[in-house]
Design a protein that fits this description.
- The chain is α+β, with helices and mostly antiparallel strands and 318 residues long.
- It has one domain (4-317): 4-Layer Sandwich (Glutamine Phosphoribosylpyrophosphate, subunit 1, domain 1), CATH 3.60.20.30.
- Helices cover 33% and strands 24% of the residues.
- It is built from 9 helices and 12 strands.
- It has helices spanning 21-43, 48-60, 105-116, 123-132, 140-143, 146-153, 239-245, 247-258, 262-277, and strands at residues 4-12, 81-87, 92-99, 120-122, 186-191, 197-203, 224-227, 231-237, 281-286, 292-296, 300-307, 312-317.
- It has an 8-stranded mixed beta sheet with strand order 4-3-2-6-5-1-11-12. A 4-stranded antiparallel beta sheet has the order 7-8-9-10.
- Helix 1 (21-43) packs antiparallel against helix 2 and helix 2 packs antiparallel against helix 3.
- The longest helix has 23 residues, at 21-43.
- It is globular.
């Protein structure tokens, strides 16, 4: 029974200078727990969608990541979360944006895909659907994280919007203080024993974001995409640029229409197209042959993989 599972926990200015031994141990344990959750599904004959959901839910439950329990705070001091999942077998997909108090947004995205008759739900409507489907809610206190809160307090009275994975700002001039800890969007891609692919991504977005801003993570084709004929992709980085580049789908197109390899396609989008646009970040990818890629143009990316051949890898730096 062959399978491949690949995960990420965000990309950006991830260097040994910001990672002490304790942080490395925390991320290693977190990434390995996510790999264990997803690989258990695949090892027991489960499909790629279930494995991706299991891995991402595990990361959503761990506050070291900017997703689920560890989500950052908006301008209003709230946690607004986005997530998407896609099945490469039939191109079915589900996504949610701006949801609050949902313990595992990725599980809600999967319910949208399977039972809503729609692809993309947002805000109160998504919460209403979650209630109907019996998904688990959690109080505001569950999502409170002191370091995330302090990060927000330092910029809440400004027009700065902080990219959680990067130590600078999107609006205004000058550095944002106290950006030593790096956290990020989470994602997973998988190829199951039947050669079916799936991709999923989940995020808390940007610190101090306004106007119900939505990034690339829940947008099918931008931050998340899966097609058994080509690849499964989950992205992390500066969402506005990944949206404009239609980054995830672009990799699939380069494979389908130009015959590029998985590595060539990922490199062209991340290391050429996005660089020219000024976009920083990365992506993980897998195809139906179980080939996989970690691709990023930033200093590092929290990432890991495991497969049925017994290989397991966890890494952070470039």
């Amino acid at each position: 029974m062959s399978y491949t599972l690949v995960i990420h926990g965000g990309a950006g200015n991830i260097t040994p200078a910001i990672m002490d031994a304790q942080m490395e141990a925390e991320y290693t344990a977190a990434l390995r727990a996510a790999l264990a959750a997803g690989s258990a599904v695949l090892r027991n004959g489960g499909d790629a969608v279930a494995a991706v959901a299991a891995s991402i839910a595990e990361m959503e439950n761990n506050p070291v990541f900017n997703a689920g329990r560890g989500s950052v705070f908006t301008k209003k001091g709230l946690n607004e979360m986005d997530a998407a999942i896609m099945n490469g077998r039939d191109l079915s997909a589900g996504a949610v944006a701006g949801v609050r108090n949902i313990k595992n947004p990725i599980l809600l995205a999967r319910e949208v895909m399977l039972h809503s008759g729609h692809v993309f739900l947002s805000n109160e409507g998504a919460a209403e659907f979650a209630l109907k489907q019996g998904l688990e809610f959690a109080p505001d206190e569950y999502f409170f994280n002191k370091s995330r809160y302090d990060q927000w307090v330092e910029i809440r009275d400004t027009d700065y919007t902080q990219l959680d994975h990067k130590g600078d700002n999107l609006k205004g001039a000058g550095p944002i203080p106290n950006t030593g800890h790096k956290f990020g969007t989470v994602g997973a891609v998988a190829c199951d024993a039947n050669g079916n692919l799936a991709a999923g991504t989940s995020t808390g977005g940007m610190t101090n974001k306004r106007f119900n801003r939505i990034g690339d993570s829940p947008v099918i084709g931008a931050g998340t995409y899966a097609n058994d004929r080509t690849c499964a992709i989950s992205c992390t980085g500066h969402g506005e640029l990944f949206l404009r580049a239609v980054a995830a789908y672009d990799v699939s197109c380069l494979i389908e229409y130009k015959g590029l390899s998985l590595r060539q396609a990922c490199d062209m989008v991340i290391k050429e197209k996005l660089v020219k646009m000024g976009g920083e970040g990365g992506m993980i990818a897998v195809n139906a042959r179980g080939e996989y890629e970690f691709c990023f143009n930033s200093a590092g990316m929290y990432r890991g993989m495991c497969n049925s051949e017994g290989r397991e890898e966890v890494a952070y730096y470039g």
